[in-house]
Amino acid sequence: MSSSISRRTLAQLLGASAVASALPANAATPPAPMPSPRSFPQGFLWGSATASYQVEGAYQEDGRGLSIWDTFSHTAGKTFNGDTGDVADDFYHRYREDIAMMKEMGLKSFRFSVAWPRVFPAGTGSPNPKGLDFYHKLVDALLAADIQPYCTLFHWDLPQTLEDKGGWRSRDTAEAYAVYAGYVAKHLGDRVKHYMTLNEMSTFVNVGYRDGRHAPGLKLDKAGVAQVAHHACLAHGLGVQAIRANAPAGTLVGLAENAAAIVPVVETPEHVAAARKAMREENAMFLTAVMEGRYTDRYLARLGAAAPKFTAAEMKAIGSPVDFVGLNIYTPHYVRADGSEQGYANVHAPASFPHMESPWLTIGPEALYWGPKLASEVWPIKAIYISENGCSAADTLTPDGQVLDTDRTMYLRNYLTHLQRGVSEGVPVKGYFLWSLLDNYEWADGYAKRFGIVYVDFKTQKRTPKLSAQFYKATIAANAVG
């Protein structure tokens, strides 16, 4: 060994095991490696997420009723290639092998959603025992694998019978949701301790009822959309109350919202202050209403005559305290200080801005730092979970059957690095759910966009963990970004 190379330098070059074999037999054992500077706190919850319609399949089995996504996807021209979720990942029949795969990866938690039409085929009325039985078996299998279940009660698959009666345009749907949520919490509450009421109100309201690109495919006017949004918020609030009334003491309730993840264009005091104002106002329609139990004056003024109709009692329900907030974060929402009365201006991405396989999925890793940080500064949030984060990629199998998704691995590494920065500074993020475990049915994009860390051959249902799955497994094992 050259005297000019220190043992520490050699360790850095070769790794501890190589150094040990290179040292003389009588040399002292090299010191243990130091903890990674990008470590997460002990007990940080590493998980993955899925949604019922995107993975379960079995859409006509065991008494399940139809959802708006069954109707929408079976309507010609609504989805890519006419793809439907009839089979999807066949998770309904293959959940045990998928849980075994989760366990092998080291996952500590799994976020799944209950399909409302499996439990109440008509949305209300008599429950379907066979539908609920599937979730009993799923939860039991997760717990047997030492994986904590996190249950989302609505991930867009509204029973078609309720849509026929007005869907989210009707206040009755919010009340029907609360009955359903309380029923599930009563029957799963002895084993499921964390519930998320609704997933991404912003998406299912705006894309489904304003833009018409998602189920139920409507294009309402501004007033109609605002009222739908209000009913969604009300469903959340009534759902929180129903869960607490039916689940055991100690059950924790929150939501999973794709709030605008505000990022200051430059990290200077004036732009950070502008971002803080934007976090509240850009999320006025949903998360701000939930966290404050009120709509902001600027939001109502902006809508004018199109503002939603509501009562004080409804706003009190909407503002029911939550135990945690789930944030689905994929892209950055940049703002700058502009000296206006509002206090900020949005900065839109230029055409050259990099994105993943999905054109909308612009790459801004700092969103996973600023989104949770600003949320925790604007509102007194007890705990935050990153309830979704991940990306689509143009995954293909190599001749030897691998998927070397270096682009997704790059995305995850950079986003998690920014998340670790926030956690190290005291931002109260307690866990991270990667979207998604499996390639699945990506809504109107059908099977054209792959978001999983496990490749799925949709003809054979064969599962193949990708390079990103290896990365995530190593991250979980080290409890640090590598």
Question: Which key terms come to mind for this protein?
Answer:
482 residues, alpha/beta, TIM Barrel, eight-stranded parallel β-barrel, three-stranded mixed β-sheet, 13 strands, disordered N terminus, beta-glucosidase activity, polysaccharide degradation, Beta-glucosidase, EC 3.2.1.21, glycosidase
Describe the structure.
With 482 residues, the protein is of the alpha/beta class. It has one domain: Alpha-Beta Barrel (TIM Barrel), CATH 3.20.20.80. The strands form 3 sheets. Strands 1-2-3-4-5-7-10-11 form an 8-stranded parallel β-barrel, surrounded by 5 helices. Strands 6-8-9 form a 3-stranded mixed beta sheet. Strands 12-13 form a two-stranded antiparallel ribbon. The protein is globular, with a radius of gyration of 23 Å. The relative contact order is 0.13. The N terminus is likely disordered.
- The mean pLDDT is 93
Major beta sheet, strand line-up: 1-2-3-4-5-7-10-11
| Helix/strand structural class | alpha/beta
Number of domains: 1
- CATH architecture descriptor text: Alpha-Beta Barrel
CATH class: Alpha Beta
The Rg value, from CA coordinates, equals 23 Å
Low-confidence stretches: 1-34
Beta-sheet strand percentage?
5-15%
- Helix content percent band: 40-55%
Cα distance spanning the termini: 29 Å
EC number: 3.2.1.21
Signal peptide: 1-27
Family: Belongs to the glycosyl hydrolase 1 family.
Keywords: Carbohydrate metabolism, Cellulose degradation, Glycosidase, Hydrolase, Polysaccharide degradation, Signal
